[in-house]
Design a protein that fits this description.
Largest interface: A-B, 45 and 45 residues
Strand content of chain A: 15-25%
Distance between the termini of chain A: 31 Å
Structural class of chain A: alpha/beta
Helix content of chain A: 40-55%
Oligomer: homodimer
Shape of chain A: globular
Number of strands of chain A: 9
CATH class of the largest domain in chain A: Alpha Beta
CATH topology of the largest domain in chain A: TIM Barrel
CATH superfamily of the largest domain in chain A: Dihydropteroate synthase-like
Largest sheet of chain A: 8 strands, parallel, barrel
Chain lengths: 268, 268
């Protein structure tokens, strides 16, 4: 399971304030703590108005790379910003993201074709997110085939089935499962990734929903998550499920996590 | 999802001490708190040497029924003890349990045939617990057919696939899933139940393993659990998963649980 730490994101109010005011101490600690608690990659999203996005992103990428030793996920709605940031990265990470929105794949695929960058691909297009798992699958299949045209192998692609919000869509999980299982079946080497926050939007104690969604997504083959590694509940779900699904055989890593105090204990 | 509270069990040291010393206050509170936190039934297991099991069980059943208003699960390794306790119950609950061990089904099935009692049936026999899901399924199928011979309908049967211990059997969950899915497929009206404690035996912070197993068991169709309702982690997993799987549409019950403070928050 690959963990992409989600906390350096300008759409989170505290992070936005820190990014805007160039609060280096706060951001360095946000980078270090996520890595300390298990992030394999760190997402970098400025959330800053387009005019300043490029310079802010450049500054953030350098800052994070000076602070920690994990690769970054370059996260921008603007594919040209993503492409322009790639040379700054000291080693390949994730581009976050492409979709079937006009211009995204066409801009990003050629730029990463002959590299080791991994690609997050969202199942949406200019009309938004399709309602049906079948339509999501078709968008995924199109992106996978397009990527192949550039020589990008299946194992570098991480499809995000864009799980819905449970509060407004009671079948959000069922739709995610159908999409993920179909992609897994047709393209066994393609990965499944999901953000853990969206499904719980508008619900109280969001972490409980996110943690159980993490477990359930892993059960249908998701092998990467954009999540908050600073949450003990998320870490407990991640490590326990890894052991239960047999990836962490005998629970060696789970037990080490306990010894390192990764899971916390619950207050009544 | 049916929750059977597991705490009044003489195999738990604290409960054993309370049962042995007739600590009424402790046991009444154990009954009441489990019901307050969501138990639909209360398991009653004395853990007392056979000579005194019958009188202890009788005393416990009366005590619990005086304290709370939910039915009991009569839990004994001795099928004759179970059958003898049935007349004490003020309303039908669970018999816990039968298996293909000699004498169990033959004793219990005729006694509950014309009643509304539900039956927990374990997939083991005199040789112990089979290694393979196929052999477990065959034991389940035999018990289901035997029960039908007594006029016991499928919907009164709760098959427990006897999940293994993760620490010694890394494929414990996979084996559970195979058994549960097969039973669900062949006998859609038969229920799947599991104890939540066994899989985590020998692991640290057992609750994390138990909570994620609860979620994963529900994902393959388990609709009853013998569990500790006093654990906020277990409750969070139960209610969040019920919402995610669409049984609790819109998360109404999940949200109410939050308002009632059922899930707690985690200490770092």
């Amino acid at each position: 399971m690959i963990v992409i730490g989600e906390k350096i994101n300008g759409f989170i109010p505290k992070a936005y304030t820190a990014i805007k005011s160039h609060d280096v101490d706060y951001l360095v600690e946000l980078a270090r703590s996520q890595v300390r608690f298990g992030a394999d990659y760190l997402d970098i999203c400025t959330g800053i108005v387009p005019e300043y996005e490029r310079e802010t992103m450049r500054w953030l990428i350098e800052l994070v790379q000076d602070a920690v030793d994990v690769p970054v996920a370059i996260d921008s709605p603007d594919p040209q910003v993503i492409v322009d940031m790639i040379p700054l990265a000291r080693r390949p990470g994730f581009v976050n993201s492409v979709s079937m929105e006009k211009g995204k794949c066409e801009t990003v695929f050629p730029a990463v074709a002959d590299t080791d960058w991994k690609i997050i691909a969202l199942t949406c297009n200019n009309d938004g997110i399709p309602d049906s798992a079948q339509a999501k699958y078709e968008l995924a299949a199109k992106m996978i085939e397009d990527a192949s045209g550039y020589g990008i192998t299946h194992d570098r692609l991480y499809i995000d089935p864009l799980v819905g919000t449970l509060a407004t869509r009671p079948d959000a999980l069922a739709d995610f499962n159908r999409t993920a299982l179909r992609i897994r079946k047709e393209y066994p080497d393609v990965h499944i990734i999901s953000g853990m926050s969206n499904i719980s939007f508008g619900m109280p104690y969001r972490t409980a929903i996110a943690a159980q969604f993490l477990t359930l997504s892993m059960a249908v083959g998701a092998d990467a998550a954009i999540m908050n590694p600073l949450s003990p509940e998320m870490r407990a779900a991640l490590f326990a499920t890894d052991a239960l699904l047999g990836f962490d055989r005998g629970g060696t890593r789970y037990i080490r996590g306990c010894q390192e105090g990764l899971y916390g204990s619950v207050r009544r």
